[in-house]
Automatic annotation (TrEMBL), chain A:
<dbReference type="InterPro" id="IPR050095">
    <property type="entry name" value="ECF_ABC_transporter_ATP-bd"/>
</dbReference>
<dbReference type="Pfam" id="PF00005">
    <property type="entry name" value="ABC_tran"/>
</dbReference>
<protein>
    <submittedName>
        <fullName>Energy-coupling factor transporter ATP-binding protein EcfA2</fullName>
        <ecNumber>3.6.3.-</ecNumber>
    </submittedName>
</protein>
<keyword id="KW-0813">Transport</keyword>
<dbReference type="InterPro" id="IPR003439">
    <property type="entry name" value="ABC_transporter-like_ATP-bd"/>
</dbReference>
<feature type="domain" description="ABC transporter">
    <location>
        <begin position="4"/>
        <end position="244"/>
    </location>
</feature>
<comment type="similarity">
    <text>Belongs to the ABC transporter superfamily.</text>
</comment>
<dbReference type="GO" id="GO:0042626">
    <property type="term" value="F:ATPase-coupled transmembrane transporter activity"/>
</dbReference>
<dbReference type="InterPro" id="IPR017871">
    <property type="entry name" value="ABC_transporter-like_CS"/>
</dbReference>
From TrEMBL, chain B:
<keyword id="KW-0472">Membrane</keyword>
<protein>
    <submittedName>
        <fullName>Energy-coupling factor transporter transmembrane protein EcfT</fullName>
    </submittedName>
</protein>
<feature type="transmembrane region" description="Helical">
    <location>
        <begin position="108"/>
        <end position="129"/>
    </location>
</feature>
<feature type="transmembrane region" description="Helical">
    <location>
        <begin position="42"/>
        <end position="59"/>
    </location>
</feature>
<feature type="transmembrane region" description="Helical">
    <location>
        <begin position="66"/>
        <end position="88"/>
    </location>
</feature>
<dbReference type="InterPro" id="IPR003339">
    <property type="entry name" value="ABC/ECF_trnsptr_transmembrane"/>
</dbReference>
<dbReference type="Pfam" id="PF02361">
    <property type="entry name" value="CbiQ"/>
</dbReference>
<dbReference type="GO" id="GO:0005886">
    <property type="term" value="C:plasma membrane"/>
</dbReference>
<keyword id="KW-1133">Transmembrane helix</keyword>
């Protein structure tokens, strides 16, 4: 079932001279994980803001084209209804904290969508187990480490059980260990909960490991959308758009240009090892 | 220790047995007591009682010394105000001279009375914030059925204090790194250059407010009410229950207040005329 459909979307902020989004077309099926990549200023955040109604409800500008969530035009749907379908995790977790303790933070959204105490308690147990945040409930969110803050931010959105979870650069403020922890949570979400996810992320090594599909956004347009393996196979296109695939993919891409790498490009060391082993066996 | 607005509160304290509403009632009602009592010795007794409660509540007593300079300077200002600007009435009794200034008994007595009224009030506030977190205040307000938007505003107000302080440090460090430093300069210079901190702070506050507004929208919050028009669950209240002890405590506080009103205004006790100071000086 189609969960997101964007038709020729154009958006210009009222104070901007040019359109930030210049005719975006995109679709996403339920249960899929879509990774969106693109250079800074490409319009990635603007694009996801159109999915939960922040654009045009919270920003002034000119909007053309249509965005559908579960077949509902976002412009004709109340924003609170949209936000209960579409959960958005911001890049700066601290900017989205609205409460004095982690527990209040997780409960806030659930109360807003009108859940009763029994349901809130059950969801609280579920989401804290999923994101490993049970030990943080009593703490103020702004006193946590970067990784903990981001897990709390994800948990607070997940607790509302959105049909679509959007993460806008969820690891941009984290160290390598923090990033891996967040992606472990994301991998669990995908495997165990089957939630539809859109993630904007610059760390392609981690993203490639979990995404089903990838989309390249540059200069306000979707340049290319494909399944993850096929996406990274278009090495030259990605490099031309300042997108640098995982190092192992880059190495294979360079070797392929020189005629030494047969077949598709690997996304991780394990895939590269298998392909090299196969080639070596053939050569021997 | 748990961090709160006034530093840290104890991890374990017998005061936590009380519902946050009871603690807020203690703050509000006990703050009225000194206003009804003029005799400083009674307010001194109340101060000692609150200090005893601070010890009982396991509050780190060395944090109290942080407030001594404030209390000292406050006392000095009150004394100066009453002695120099206290005016004159024929019934005033002179008790000495300070240069050309004549010191009268009554203004000094009023300075002491006023000061001793403020001291227990300050200690009650210290007691409350040394044993309660921001969340306790919000729980108390929600128990009193204060609308969610208002309690939320209080919570955000409390949180923004820390955020502004944090932003101020960032701005100051950033400006210091680029050669702007007011250390060692005169107070007038510091005041004049304070705008250098205020402008970026204002900009940060605007950005934060936009982020905050987005975060609220993204979490389905709307001033129009809940999505399905249900009553807000107030989940936080499920952790707190008013016990028999809480009712007894609140009842005792109110009873003491009523008793004080009767003693003070019906029987004329605890007034300024019946203070120990009067007996000591006038006799």
């Amino acid at each position: 079932m189609e969960i997101v459909r964007i038709e020729d979307l154009r958006w210009k902020y009222s104070e901007a001279r040019e359109y930030t989004l210049k005719g975006v077309n995109l679709f996403l099926e339920e249960g899929k994980f879509l990774g969106i990549v693109g250079p800074n200023g490409a319009g990635k955040t603007t694009l996801v803001y159109t999915l939960n109604g922040l654009i045009p409800y919270r920003y002034n500008g000119i909007k053309k084209g249509r965005v559908f969530i579960y077949g509902h035009d976002t412009e004709a749907t109340p924003v609170e209804k949209l936000t209960s379908w579409v959960g958005l995790v911001f890049s700066d977790p601290e900017a989205q904290f609205t409460s004095m303790t982690v527990e209040d933070e997780l409960v806030f959204g659930m109360e807003n969508i009108g859940l009763d105490r029994k349901e809130i308690k059950a969801r609280l147990e579920w989401v804290t187990e999923l994101t490993n945040t049970a030990s943080l409930l009593e703490k103020p969110p702004y006193e946590l480490s970067g990784g903990q803050k981001q897990r709390v931010a994800i948990a607070s959105v997940l607790a509302m059980k959105p049909k679509l979870l959007i993460m806008d650069e969820p690891t941009s403020m984290l160290d390598p260990i923090g990033r891996e922890t967040i992606f472990e949570v994301i991998a669990r979400l995908k495997q165990e909960e089957g939630i539809t996810i859109i993630a904007i992320e610059h760390n392609l090594e981690l993203l490639a490991a979990v995404a089903d599909d990838m989309a390249l956004l540059n200069d306000g347009q979707i340049i290319f959308q494909a399944q993850t393996r096929e996406f990274f196979n278009n090495y030259d296109l990605l490099i031309a758009n300042q997108i640098y695939p995982p190092e192992v993919t880059q190495m294979a891409g360079i070797l392929r240009k020189e005629g030494y790498w047969p077949g598709s490009l690997p996304l991780n060391i394990e895939q590269a090892r298998k392909q090299i082993s196969k080639s070596l066996v053939r050569a021997v | 220790m748990k961090k709160t607005l006034l530093g840290y509160i104890p991890e374990e304290s017998p005061v936590y047995q009380l519902h946050p509403l009871t603690r807020v009632m203690f703050l509000l009602i006990v703050s009225i007591y000194p206003m009804l009592v003029a005799a400083p010795e009674w307010n001194l007794a109340l101060t000692v009682l609150i200090l005893g409660l601070l010890v009982y509540a396991k509050v780190r007593m060395n944090t109290i010394k942080n407030y001594i300079p404030i209390m000292g300077s406050m006392g000095f200002i009150i004394l100066i105000s009453y002695t120099i600007f206290g005016g004159y009435e024929p019934s005033y009794i002179p008790i000495g001279h300070l240069g050309s200034l004549t010191l009268y008994f009554q203004p000094i007595r009023w300075a002491i009375v006023t000061y001793m009224r403020l001291i227990p009030m300050i200690f009650v506030v210290i007691f409350f914030f040394s044993t309660s977190r921001e969340r306790d205040l919000i729980v108390a307000l929600r128990t009193l059925r204060v609308p969610f938007a208002m309690t939320y505003l209080v919570g955000m107000g409390l949180r923004s204090v820390g955020m502004v302080m944090e932003d101020f440090q960032i701005v100051r460090e950033a400006e210091k790194a680029r050669g702007f430093d007011t250390r060692g300069k005169s107070l007038f210079y510091k005041l004049r250059k304070f705008i250098m901190y205020i402008v970026p702070l204002f900009g940060l506050a605007l950005r934060r407010s936009e982020e905050f507004s987005n975060a609220l929208t993204a979490r389905a919050y709307t001033f129009r009410g809940l999505l399905n028009q249900q009553k807000r669950a107030d989940y936080v209240l499920s952790h707190y229950h008013l016990s028999f002890v809480d009712y007894i405590f609140i009842f005792t506080l109110i009873l003491a207040l009523i008793t004080l009103v009767i003693l003070r205004y019906h029987y004329g006790l605890m007034g300024v005329e019946s203070t120990v100071i009067n007996k000591l000086v006038l006799q």
